[in-house]
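Quick start: what a row looks like.
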Amino acid sequence: MEAVPRMPMIWLDLKEAGEFAFNAAVKKVRPGPGQGRRGPGGGCSTLRKYLGQLHFLQSRIPMGNGQDAAVPVTWTEIFSGKAVTHEDIKYEQACVLYNLGALHSMLGAMDKRVSEECAAGAFTYLRDHFPHSYSVDMSHQILSLNINLMLGQAQECLLEKSMLDNRKSFLVARISAQVVDYYKEACRALENSETASLLGKIQKDWKKLVQMKIYYFAAVAHLHMGKQAEEQQKFGERVIYFQSALDKLNEAIKLAKGQPEAVQEALRFTMDVIGGKYNSAKKDNDFIYHEAVPALDTLQSDFSALTPCSVLSCPSEEKAKLLRDVMAKIEAKNEVLDQFMDSMQLDPDTVDNLDMYEHIPPVLMEKCAALSVRPDTVRNLVQSMQVLSGVFTDVEASLKEIRDLLEEDEAQERKLQELLGRVPPAPGSPPGLAEVSKECSKYLELHEKASFTNTELHRAMNLHLGNLRLLGGPLEQVRAALPTPSLSEDDKQVLQNLKRILAKVQEMRDQRMSLEQQLREMIQKDDITTSLVTTDRSEMKKLFEEQLKKYDQLKVYLEQNLAAQENVLKALTDANVKYAAVRKALAEVEHKWNTTVQTLVASYEAYEDLMKKSQEGKDFYTDLEGKAAKLLERARAACQASEAHRQQLLERELKKQPPPRPTAPKPPLQKKPPDEAGGPEPAELGSL
């Protein structure tokens, strides 16, 4: 790139010194909490001098753990803020060495960016030569994380210098790839649950920044690999490398949300560079060169060919390459295995759930236990519903009688109207009958609504009563009521075979993880510094090759593990085909079992609700019964008064009839048939 955009770097906090009860002279040169913060260079110099004095002191005075002159040494642990004390001068040395590395990380994060490699060296020496049990901020996991972060940032500084010096594209690409490798190792450490719990909130911020840098520097690496292809006039390769660089940069931009403006500006600058390179290369190839664009994965194996001998001669780089190659194979196999297991939907823990049918589930046992101390549960519910039914019947009878009285009164009123041929006059009619009719209608409406609720309550009671009796009975009956699968011997054999193969899959996973961890630890602990000092420069490549052979046995074991996966998955596929019918039958039984358990639990939980609603129903109908009884008395009295009123009207009507007028005697007439004489006298008039 024409200019070098900078990414922010991570720096580490300093440990704070506590008491060191040796003498005042030591305190004069021992850096305290503020030492090294006023001037970073002076702080590093002070720390180095003090560290040298501690080594001299240790060689002269027995101040180690358990020795005669050992005194308490106190430093503050970074993550918890607690004071940690050990009677060991090596603890003082370890803490000072940690602060030396942290101080170099601060220097490296500044504009000069020259101290990251020194920080990694301090942490590496601390990890490899001091106990990890002093405090959690100096544990193996935390120190390994710090080392990879510092190495990545040191390589980032080297990359920046190489680009400023206009070094060859293949070298810049290689250094960028090494940055990616270190940050990947740091990211794996950050994803460790134990490390994450120690770092707290800062773990998320670091992980987000590191993940973004992985994609960013991968984009830079592929950009310069594309430039290398351009120098070699491999125009098809140039297009795919620039395209890959663009894809990775887009991923970095997605992960950079929330990062400072300096990061966004660097990403925009890099996008302009890579986007311009890609568009130009694609256009040239489409219209001028017409070279086939190869797949990216076919070019990855040629990456090491771009590396100069001076870089290949680095032992740490060779080990990193070895680990990278092994991890690529493991990740590829793990991805296939995960996808396969997801498609099978086979959970080894629940593939056969036969054990659960042998016991009553705890949730049901809890309900049975609760009912065992309340033996009258069912009887109380039945009695409560019987009382409710009795009050309901009484209210219904009272309201029916009131309604009958009102209907009878209305019938007598209509009969009177027919006799008189007109509506009787209102004055003097008995009061209260209309009010009785109105209240009766209101009570009938309430009764009708409550009747529906009462019917639903009885239906619910009948639904749950049998389940409550079952839960309150012997446990053997409860267990017998739960569905259980019935498998043939062949079905059981199919099931056992599937479980055996699933166990084999888990064994393969565990062994793979163990071998990977062994290889990592072996590579991290391997130190050939002494051999390098005594080896002639011309023999170093041979030395590195011989040193790498010590990993061959672990590589063989890993290769065997990875090769076995295909056979294991084939056997699992065959076993799963045979398991299909058994799986369906077990799923159906499990569904019925769960439904039965849920129904029984629902019945228990419905009991309190039934009792509550039953009591509410009794209270409602008891109140309504009292009102209906009073209304019935009023209805009887009103109907009697209405009947008396009708009698008075009839008597008044009879008194109003005029006496017959006298007429002259007429000669006797011949008797006519009844139909000609106008018919007999009406019975009604006779009664009047």
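That is the whole record. The beta strands are 17-20, 73-76, 83-86. The CA atoms of residues 106 and 262 lie 18 Å apart.
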